[in-house]
Amino acid sequence: MKWLTVTFAMILSCAFVVDAAATEWNASLWGKRRAFTEHVERLAELVSEKTDGAFTINVSYGGLSKPRENLDGISIGAFEMAQFCAGYHRDKNRAITVLELPFLGVENLDEEVAVSHAVYAHPAVIDEMLQWGAKLLMTSPMPQYNIVGTGEPRDTLEDMNGMRVRATGGIGKAFESVGGVPTSVAATEAYQAMESGVVDTVAFAQHAHLSFGTINKADWWTANLNPGTVNCPVVVNIDAYEALPDDHKAALNQSVDEAIGHYLANYAELLKRWDSVLAEKGVEKVQISDAVLNDFRAKAADPIRAEWIADMTAQGLPAQELYELVMNTLQSARGGS
Fold first, then answer.
1. How far is the CA of 133 from the CAs of 67, 72, 89, 138, 202, in angstroms?
2. Rounded to two decimals, what is the model's pTM?
3. CB contact set of 284 (below 8 Å; sequence gap of 6+)
4. Average pLDDT, 10 consecutive residues per value, the chain (337 residues)
5. Burial of 18: CB neighbours in 10 Å, binned 0-12, 13-18, 19+
6. Cβ-Cβ contacts under 8 Å for 20 (sequence gap 6 or more)
7. In degrees rounded to 5, what are phi and psi of residue 137?
8. Got the DSSP string for 72-139?
């Protein structure tokens, strides 16, 4: 009987150890599963595989927080992981808004990953995220944004004057520089804003035009306006991260590159299908003339960059250094010296 008691106690002890070593995280996203969230989904799969199911990440689409409140939720430990977009609350993540400046010249998603992760590793960026108890884990790389609209295409700067456009961050600033009226409604509200006439046009990357239905309302889409993109990191709560067992922390860190690789491959397939999507939905593909693009850049790129550098420098951030980091990283990514 004594032997049975000891054996039972050992079994309970082992069960407690296994349970204590288990890690369960919640990740706060929004909308629905789409190209924009595939790296988070893949990350959850990878950490579970690498830890034999001992580390699980439950991905929630809007059930934990509103998109604009994800960083706040991270700061109070309401959940362990979240995705947010810098343009939703520029005052909370000032340093990374360098990545949202218009017409930076980023040409593809690989370059977007390179410049984002270089900026995320800068001490000023790390320090700013510390204020929110957050650690930047990986980016959510998106192509250059383009706009959809109804009626006649807005393909000149005169047409964009007075245009109400759903656009955030530097993209919103770019349209404002040519007389546009940007509004930063959340992505989940963009279709309703377009349908109700609150906005005339919506600026998104391709996946979002699909996911949030704005392509279904559109008569046209600008193929080459490319004013910039939005930077949307995935962050983790620092306390939760530091509390991870060493093997779980390693599983998380070692899965980032593979998760990003999965995201890039998936997005490439979406871009291959884009022209057929436009044809299927009867959306005109509008090419903006070089003259209009050059005029747009002249009005938006240099002035907005100079204003951002002056403003951020006045707030104590190494703005010029951050901008040069982006430019130097782009050059290195293209094989420059």
1. 18, 9, 16, 16, 33
2. 0.87
3. 153, 219, 220, 221, 278
4. 45 44 95 96 98 98 96 98 94 97 94 98 98 98 95 96 94 95 92 95 95 96 95 98 98 98 95 94 97 96 96 98 98 83
5. exposed
6. none
7. -100, -50
8. HHHHTTS-SEEE--GGG-TTTSTGGGGGG-TT----SHHHHHHHHHHHHTSHHHHHHHHTTTEEEEE-
